[in-house]
Amino acid sequence: PKHRGMDVAWVATHLHSLMVELGYAQYAAQGGDWGGMICSRIAYRFPQHCVALHLNFCVPVSMDWYGKLKVAVGLLFMSSEEWAAVKSTMYFLKYETAYQQIQGTKPQSLAFGLNDSPVGLLA
To answer: What values do phi and psi take at 16, rounded to 5?
Structure first.
């Protein structure tokens, strides 16, 4: 972009405008990573047009003190199935997010490994 101000809201507005200009009165949106944030904004701002939303990267919103209290109290009443889901999520975060960690801290190091060989890229 040549100008400052291109953020999630800006992209969401422009993608919605594009869909309308293409002739779609209603449409579905799907997003992951940045697309998850952008598509969420589209669905929130244009619900009469974006009639379905699918996300594979969900971003939690921050909670006020009341929201945090509800979560804390809710922990006391979780079923064994819910606790199993929490444990599974914690395991995933600990052992299956290395790519995300390096992407967030040393992306250039990862780029060299991915682009140095076809095998690195396939991995």
So the answer is: -60, -45
Token pair listed for 61: 């919103």
Structure tokens that stand for 42 in this block:
């589209």
Q: What confidence score (pLDDT) does residue 24 get? A: 97
CB atoms within 10 A of CB 49: 16
Spatial separation of the C-alpha atoms in residues 64 and 70, rounded to whole Å: 10
Q: What is the DSSP string of 17-84?
A: HHHHHTT-SSEEEEESTHHHHHHHHHHHH-TTTEEEEEESS--PPP--HHHHHHHHHHHTT--HHHHH
pLDDT averaged per 10 residues in sequence order, the chain, 123 residues: 83 97 97 91 96 85 80 87 90 88 83 78 71
Query: Can you tell me the distance from the alpha carbon of 63 to that of 47, in angstroms, rounded to the nearest whole number?
Result: 23
